[in-house]
């Protein structure tokens, strides 16, 4: 039998319980996957706590993993047993040693991308690709603000945007994280606990503001992010680690003709061709050492609660993995 983490009720990390589960043979269009590395993301924390009520309980959380194809169902082409794959899914089920997966979600990994790396970077990397290349196409000469610049997505945004020729300003919570963000491409760092980031952005940009703000913090930073924009600047909110944003009047965008977007990566990867294109660009930049991925602590699957505690502490740098 396989093992999985079952969430039966919303709550703290202790709500994550290890269970034995049966995994059926793959049906039409499906693969059976033996998972070797499972990504741990803030989305998982929001699901566990009940902030996101998108997983039917009891259910198996987790939206990102990598592993090996063990069996192939009818009507599946393009995969062979033994293939190394990774995936993201908004239908959950990743916190498990084995699972059934729709083949349309599986991405075959190039030789240079191992399964631990894929599970560490795929969701964050596809999110960064969406933000920089589609939601707002960052150009050489742009000035951008990245909140939580030392976080998982933030690190990729800083490196990728710098590679594209943008000037990157990053907010961070400590001097250690500021040093890391500068090493990853931030031209300027702001210690948000000690400095007013809006005032610092105005100083850095000679009161012009930034072309785009990438904000995964939400409630605590939303109005400041809007104030930091230049004329015709674009505020991209893609998370809410500090809580949900209060309702706003659309007219607050009018004084500087600003725009606001709240994108979700699963809408951008819903078409197979787009998923493959986004992943291909991500993997190519990793292979060329444009993007460095810092892996973090590895926990046994049975200790998913400890992994969530580490993630919520915000004391660690690098990604977190679960190992079946």
UniProtKB/TrEMBL annotation:
SUPFAM superfamilies named in the record: GroES-like, NAD(P)-binding Rossmann-fold domains
PROSITE patterns recorded: QOR_ZETA_CRYSTAL
Naturally occurring in which organism (per UniProt): Advenella incenata
Segments traversing the membrane: none
A GO CC term attached to the entry: cytosol
One Pfam family linked to the record: ADH_zinc_N
Record keywords, A-Z: NADP, Oxidoreductase
Full protein name: NADPH2:quinone reductase
Record keyword Membrane present: no
PANTHER family for this protein: QUINONE OXIDOREDUCTASE PIG3-RELATED (PTHR48106), QUINONE OXIDOREDUCTASE-RELATED (PTHR48106:SF13)
GO MF: mRNA 3'-UTR AU-rich region binding; NADPH binding; quinone reductase (NADPH) activity; zinc ion binding
InterPro entries found in the cross-reference section: ADH-like_C, ADH-like_N, ER, GroES-like_sf, NAD(P)-bd_dom_sf, QOR-like, Quin_OxRdtase/zeta-crystal_CS
Domain Enoyl reductase (ER): from-to ranges: 11-322
